[in-house]
Every structure is written in C-alpha cells, then in structure tokens.
Amino acid sequence: MMARAGVPTLAEVEYLSWQDLVELLDRGGYVRYDFRTATRLQKLAVVVRERHGGRIGTLRGMPIQEIRAALDALPGWGPITVSAFLREMRGVWPGVDPALGDRAFEAAQHLGLLAGGRDPLARIRAIAADADLDLRDLETGLVRLWIAHHRDLEGCPGGPSCSALQTRVARGTTTPRSFGTDAAPPLAV
After folding, report:
1. Model confidence over 109-118: pLDDT tens digits?
2. Alpha-carbon distance 85 to 79, whole Å?
3. What is the distance between the alpha carbons of residues 66 and 77, in angstroms, rounded to a whole number?
4. What is the mean pLDDT of the chain?
5. Which end of the chain is more exposed for a tag (fewer CB within 10 A), N or C?
C-alpha cells in the first residue's frame, strides 16, 4: 500500500507531514487507526534511520537472537510483530528460520496436523511442500485460524470437523485441499 502511494521505504515516511501520512493511511483503508498509526510510523522511521541507516535490511545476516533483539527494541514492536516479521523473512534472510509460532502451533495441533511426533516446524514444512504451498503462507493461515477461532478451541472437535473451518468453507472463502496422505482439512491461507 505504501509503495503504491509513492512511499517505497520506511525511511521516506519521515519526510511526509503527519497529515499527509494520515491521508495516505486513509486511502489505504487504515481509517480506524490512521492517527495513531501515522504517529507510530513516523517514530519508527526516525529510529530506523538513527539505528540502522534507514533500512531494516542492515540486520540481514546477523545471528537470529541479535535480529530478534534489534527488532524488539523498535518503537511499537513487540513479540507478535517481531515473530510475524521473522516468519516472513524465513527463506529470504540467511539464517532466519524461527520455530513454529505458538499460535500456528496451537492451530496446527487443533487441526491434527502435528501427528507423527516430528518436529512441529518440520511437519508443517512437509505439509506445505506436499500441498505446493509456501511455508510462510501456511503458517500465516494457521495464525489466522487461531485468531478467528482461539476462544472456541476447547469446544470445537478440531481436525476435519473444526467448526471454524466448516464455517469458512460454507461461506465459500476456502477451497478444500488435500494435504498428502494425512487428508488434513481445508485451510484458508
């Protein structure tokens, strides 16, 4: 959204007026959070410039714990934002291959995808490969399922009978897929 609006990097946010940034966020559909987000983005741009020369990419190649600490020190970033960023950098930045996040783990466990005693990330990686999906997309889909459904996990039968998945399929937002020999349920990714 930002790049399409002519702001290709975070560093360039610093040079926009607060009002221009709010208008940009409004056009991008962030009306509900525009004022707070504009302020956070401007603070973030300043810190990224001061600490990292205007680009988070300077962290590339560092040990994962140092990357995690540097990201966690950014204003407005906490464990969930850091985890999401690192998940998206998996396979893009050398050495970035974080463990399966807690939310994705819980959703995968709920769906019965972690059977077989293998390392959870290895299991999800194999499922993604069998389904010709990007691992990051599958993990993101699991996180979205957890967000949509986590309060009802205990009351849901899980697996192919997962009420959240059945509701999504009924609304036509998910296309059933085969996940190899395990015949796992459809998952919106």
Report:
1. 888 899 877 7
2. 10
3. 15
4. 80
5. N
